[in-house]
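Technical note accompanying the year-one report. For the benefit of new consortium partners, we illustrate the data format agreed upon in the data management plan: each record pairs a sequence with a structure-token string. No post-processing was applied to the example shown here.
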Amino acid sequence: MDKLFKAAQVAINNCLAVKKGESVLVITDYPQRKIGYAFWEAAKEAGSEAMLLEILPRSSNGEEPPSAVAKFMKDFDILIIPTSKSMSHTKARREACAGKSRCVTLPGIIEDTMERTLNADYHEIAKRSIKVAELVNQGKTAKVTTPAGTNITMSIEGRECEADTGLVHKPGDFSNLPAGEAYIAPVEGTANGIIMVDGSMIGKVKKPIKIVVKDGFATEISGDKSAKELEEMLERFGQPGRNVAELGIGTNHKAQIVGSVLEDEKVMGTVHMALGDNQSMGGKVSVQSHLDGILLKPTLWIDDKKIMEDGVLKI
């Protein structure tokens, strides 16, 4: 059996629990067509009313799909979205989930990631992710340091840390696949310090990208050509694109740093911080951009409790 189809089958049966007769819409684009097709085949085999829709690739993570597609999405029980740019942080996705749809997005997923990580034990990952989220929710301030020089603090007071479990069984449920993180939107305007992205951001990082953060926004970005590329990507979104949007903690033991943020941000023992939109995670900034940077061997404090030390979870 084709490995890609087998991985799609695991996701259809375990992560999404697709039932006979449910309506499933797979939205894909040209770079992800092969993966989109594998999901459509697996959904069809599960006895669902499966449809496959190919859109033109978007130009940034968080850019909305065509409005006709956004309307169409609301009519389905299940949405599976392997596209080259992320639709996780779009109004279209949020509104579909606010209706009855349950949804998984797989932005930029590569075949190797799909074959290797979708057959992980998501019940184990879910347990770990929920435990981490509970610990984060006990505090008001988060602080992250890394050997590369990250040193940043932020308020998380009044914000809810969510667990991305990969188990999408109820109407309105949403997850990335592969899943495996706990994530929270820091309070806008409260993050201060330095982020040194040494894992990946726009592909694997050769030389760390240094991001200086002042009062919740990235004010300076420096490093090699990756830093320049990041600066260029952020340019058209103005200040909202520089908002410190997310603090995330990876909890997937099968994930590896491969240069694809979708998998990289799930690696157990990493922390990621994102710039841009945080509305999908309970924040106030809505912008058609969300970019994650992965930090290696982090130490994470929630108030004065260390929940991760040098990349090892203390749970």
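Partners are asked to follow this layout when depositing records. Residues 3-117 form a domain with the Rossmann fold fold (CATH 3.40.50.2300).
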